[in-house]
Amino acid sequence: MEQKNKKLSTQSYKGARDFYPEDMRARNYIFETWKKVCRKYGFDEYDFPILEPYEIFAAKTGEEIVKDQLYSFEDKGGRKLAIRPELTPGTVRMIAQKYKELVQPIKWFMIGNNWRFEKPQLGRGREFYQLEVNIFGEKSVAADFEIFSIIIDVMTAFGAKKEQFALLLSDRRLISALLSNALKLSEEMQAKVRRLMDKRSKMEKEEFLASLKELGINPEQCRKVEAFMNCSLESISSIIPPEILNENDGYKSIKELFEMLNASGLGDYCRFDPSIIRGFDYSDGLVYEVFDKNPKNSR
């Protein structure tokens, strides 16, 4: 009887939000701007269910998300499912399903909502929307250049100027050159160090070095990892020997990409930053993030 008389809450689930008509107008404007820019570059829109087999994320999504943030459950048939925390694994599943039938290069974009069980924070709840833009079947740096052009066009379409945001980039193959080729770390140790490097921006220098030491990294290796995290494209040869660096595909790709960006007038929006790691296991090449330059942004 008490349960029946209990007053139902009018609040949405913590970390989710309701969209009243005035909110929908703003959301629709954002989504339509995303779509307009993507279609200008010849990308096709796609979609897939918010529920996916659990193993898709267990295999490729970052360990922290799978262990601590993934909404997962068993359905009535005993199948383990998950609410998607990101769009990339589902996208790859779709591509793999019909890869031989699809005309390449495949240029797709999607706007979808995702869920992660994490502490709601400014600008990010447990439910959030994401624009996913991908090119499959094109290995040249031209594909990366096109994605960067879309990102910058999206930002400027909203009125953002180059003084207000920056596209920071690195390459996972450069990190491999450091950890594997230069420091000779085992694959298991490389994975541990990469995870720590991904958290470097949230740690003080001494805390970071102490954490590396706890992993079993010697002082000289610790020094080189820390120096790598703060180097420029011009100074990286003082950390990774030139004979390794000049043969590294990641280093070659970044240099070629900057040549294209500078030639097109987009170089001022972009900056090499080796601290951009990305914790996802499927990231094996160029990695990048867009940062708000407002001094009130604590990141």
From TrEMBL:
Pfam families assigned to the protein according to its UniProt record, in alphabetical order: tRNA-synt_His
Keyword Coiled coil recorded: yes
GO BP annotation list: histidyl-tRNA aminoacylation
Keyword Coiled coil: yes
MF GO annotations: histidine-tRNA ligase activity
Residue span, Aminoacyl-transfer RNA synthetases class-II family profile domain: 1-299
Protein name according to UniProt: Aminoacyl-transfer RNA synthetases class-II family profile domain-containing protein
Organism, scientific name: candidate division WWE3 bacterium RIFCSPHIGHO2_02_FULL_38_14
